[in-house]
Q: What sequence folds into this?
């Protein structure tokens, strides 16, 4: 037991100690028996295509975990959508990567779940500014994972400062309710002025307008208080919302009626794809938090499918080394490797590691472009009617 935060260190992950205990027992048993078979193991969520698309993320960390080990690995590219079949495979002496399974699946499962949710909100409001506000809902050590997953899906920015330092991007944000409350009820103008005069010129002038008074009232007052106000933000507590769409529309109407057509409206607080689809006609931008960061991890498994060149798999899994293909109609196909695939299909599993050396990198901007293009190709639709 150590003092300080309950965080597994990067060193423990790299050394294979961030593992389930039965993998330690497996290595001990194989070592005792003098066995170290060469295996092919595949990372898969669904054996066959399901039509339920997910966005692959977390591959950068997974690749780093395999680097320097005597294995070969192939994988889809980050930002690729998939609905079945393997997203990655590892070939090599099993004892060389046995202990890595727990961390490898964690890297891929959590990030892929969040990236898929982020893609849903991106597609629900494709022309709006959408920011990630969700890192407060997860362990702080995961802040960069949340924000990278959101950016990979095409979101426009994020709020976590330390994540920005990790990712080489600048976090954004304006004011919380706490700032307004510090000035007391009825003194909202003083809070807005302090913000306007206190923060740097590069910070957008966005006033939070639902702390004490009616949203319409505070929105117009803020627009009259701060010269060159960029936007007002509505983050009304769910228990006080009533018809949130009507509130947002009324704020927009009232700002226009008061001559503040150039002041935007930004909405946040418990929003998902359905709300973005509903509000995007009246709001210029959104902050989305828990819908992304609270996503269920994708249920990936790592299964041996070949041992010393012979097909092998446990019951319920598809034996043998596989390939996956994308066809021009957006189809995702699974076939045995070395057998003919779809005549018009492009294979998606590409070299990632060769004998421990990384042979490609994961560029975040390229992955975001790929996610956008692939979402169009497969017809990815957000759950806006649910």
A:
């Amino acid at each position: 037991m150590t003092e300080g935060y309950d965080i597994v260190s990067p060193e423990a992950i790299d050394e294979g100690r961030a593992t389930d205990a039965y993998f330690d027992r497996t290595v001990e048993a194989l070592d005792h028996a003098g066995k170290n078979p060469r295996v092919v193991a595949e990372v898969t969520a669904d054996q066959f295509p399901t039509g339920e698309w997910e966005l692959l993320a977390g591959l950068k960390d997974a690749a780093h975990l395999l680097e320097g080990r005597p294995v070969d690995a192939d994988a889809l590219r980050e930002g690729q959508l998939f609905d079945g079949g393997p997203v990655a495979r590892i070939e090599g002496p099993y004892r060389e990567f046995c202990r890595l399974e727990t961390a490898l699946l964690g890297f891929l499962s959590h990030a892929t779940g969040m990236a898929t949710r982020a893609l849903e909100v991106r597609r629900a409001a494709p022309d709006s500014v959408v920011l990630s506000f969700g890192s407060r809902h997860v362990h702080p050590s995961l802040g960069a994972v949340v924000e990278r997953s959101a950016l990979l899906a095409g979101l426009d920015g994020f709020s976590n400062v330390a994540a920005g330092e990790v990712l080489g991007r600048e976090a954004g944000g304006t004011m919380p309710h706490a700032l307004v409350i510090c000035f007391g009820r009825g003194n909202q103008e003083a809070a807005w002025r302090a913000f306007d005069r206190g923060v740097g010129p590069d910070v957008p002038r966005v006033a939070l307008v639902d702390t004490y008074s009616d949203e319409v009232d505070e929105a117009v007052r803020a627009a009259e208080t701060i010269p060159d106000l960029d936007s007002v933000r509505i983050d009304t507590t769910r228990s006080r919302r009533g018809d949130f769409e009507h509130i947002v529309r009324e704020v927009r109407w009232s700002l226009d009626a008061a001559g503040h057509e150039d002041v935007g409206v930004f909405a946040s607080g418990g929003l998902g794809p359905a709300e973005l689809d509903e509000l995007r006609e009246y709001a210029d931008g959104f902050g989305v938090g828990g819908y992304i960061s609270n996503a269920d991890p994708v249920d990936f498994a790592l299964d041996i499918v070949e041992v010393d060149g012979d097909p092998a798999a446990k019951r319920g899994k598809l034996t043998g080394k596989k390939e996956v293909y994308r066809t021009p109609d957006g189809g995702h196909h699974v076939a045995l490797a070395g057998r003919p695939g779809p005549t018009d299909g492009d294979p998606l599993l590409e070299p990632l590691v060769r004998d421990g050396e990384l042979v490609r990198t994961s560029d975040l901007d390229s992955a975001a472009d790929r996610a956008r293009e692939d979402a169009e190709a497969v017809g990815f639709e957000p759950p806006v009617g649910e």
Q: What stands out?
A: The CA atoms of residues 74 and 350 lie 5 Å apart. The chain is about 35% helix and 20% strand.
